Amino acid sequence: KFVCVTSPFSCLSQLLLHPQIICRLVWGRVGLKVYKPISLELFQCSKLLVVKACFTISLVTPSRSFFPYLEGKLNLNCLVLFKVLRNFTFAVSWRAEEILYRLDVDWPKHPEYFTGATFCAAVDSLNGLVYVAQRGDNIPKILVFTEDGYFLRAWNYTVDSPHGIFAASTQYEQSVWITDVGSGVYGHTVKKYSSFGDLVQVLGTPGKKGTGLNPLQFDNPAELYVEDTGDIYIVDGDGGLNNRLIKLSQNFMILWLHGENGTGPAKFNIPHSVTLDSAGRVWVADRGNKRIQVFDKDTGEWLGAWNNCFTEEGPSAVRFTPDGKYLIVAQLNLSRLSVVAAPPVGSIGECSVISTIQLADQVLPHLLEVDRKTGAVYVAEIGAKQVQKYVPLNSYVPPFGS
């Protein structure tokens, strides 16, 4: 039940001025969060003044094995009626944001395969495969699922501490790339594998961090993005010696790089994630500087930056939706996903958040991937030690009565 004060104007102002989460309720191991209303209307009906609000509530459980059918979010419509003491006519309508995704609570079918801290996920859209990389002792580091959530296989060969993962999939080749930040004999490298875990290529000096370019060395390489042409974009420096963005050719030659620590244009402080859009622009989550920087993919020219959306915390992951309309951004310590409007070709403009997904506290979304065929978003959560799948609402028709 929602209890409001007697004055409709006071009620309205409290709802609008509240933080995003209005209240938290706990029953045993199950928590309920009530969020700021996504829509609010105030109007007069006969001798009654009506406040109509649509709230989003989410049920939070410690694991999927406990009430899994209750996980996720749902909308709750609420009517609050006030008696009108004098006649006046007005109407107020307000809407916060769109809801664009729903949580797929059936993915994966067997979450018990998550036995470590899940740092990243990759999607082979061509073959319908999802790769999950996790860390821990005496556990498989790479898990392979179908896009429907069925577990296929696991492998662990030459993987130390995975940080980022990318599935490069064309009609000619399917491969899996992993950035390894471990301190063991396989660490500080970027490695290419077959889908079954066979090591194909190693970039960097295994087990030895460094700043060199010839031969190329890494120190805590965070993530990479591989174009269909075979060109590779690497962000190197998750808190290590390096803070740089490197573009390599398919033959692993350096085409261009930006590699200086700082706050100015084309300088970085923990470049954590990298992606491309269809207009030939490279987008980098400059996490320590609380911004996203943008570059021309051919020349490496700096095109601009977004920082107005990340005043609380810098972005930890960036990926575009298949239609190129939105950029999905994760913020680790805020446990938040944001859907940001992509700018038109020829302009960077300002960051504009269209929708958000507020996860439970300490879920910690680290990196994410978007299925280029279905648009599904896979989020690796190091706090919750799981990967969750979010499906675009416009591609889903729920069965009657669900």
Report what the structure shows.
There is one protein chain. The chain is an all-beta fold and 402 residues long. It folds into 2 domains: 8-96, no CATH class; 102-395, TolB, C-terminal domain (Neuraminidase), CATH 2.120.10.30. Helices cover 2% and strands 48% of the residues. It is built from 1 helix and 32 strands. Strand 1 (21-27) and strand 2 (30-35) form a beta hairpin. 38% of the residues are buried.
Task: Throw out a few tags for this protein.
single chain, 402 residues, mainly beta, Neuraminidase, 2 domains, six-stranded antiparallel sheet, four-stranded antiparallel sheet, 1 helix, disordered C terminus
In short:
The protein is mainly β. The protein is built from 1 helix and 32 strands. A hairpin with a 4-residue loop joins strand 23 and strand 24.
> Mean of residue pLDDT?
84
Q: End-to-end span in angstroms?
A: 23 Å
CATH topology of the largest domain: Neuraminidase
Helix content: under 10%
How many strands, what sense, and barrel or not for the largest sheet? 6 strands, antiparallel
Rg value: 23 Å
Number of strands: 32
Structural class label: mainly beta
The CATH superfamily of the largest domain turns out to be TolB, C-terminal domain
Return the CATH architecture of the largest domain: 6 Propeller
**Total tally of structural domains:** 2
User: Which ranges are low-confidence, i.e. pLDDT below 50, for 5 or more consecutive residues?
Assistant: 1-8, 63-73, 81-95, 396-402
Q: State the name of the first-level CATH class of the largest domain.
A: Mainly Beta
Keywords: Glycoprotein, Repeat, Signal
Protein name: NHL repeat-containing protein 3
NHL repeats: 259-298
Pfam families: NHL
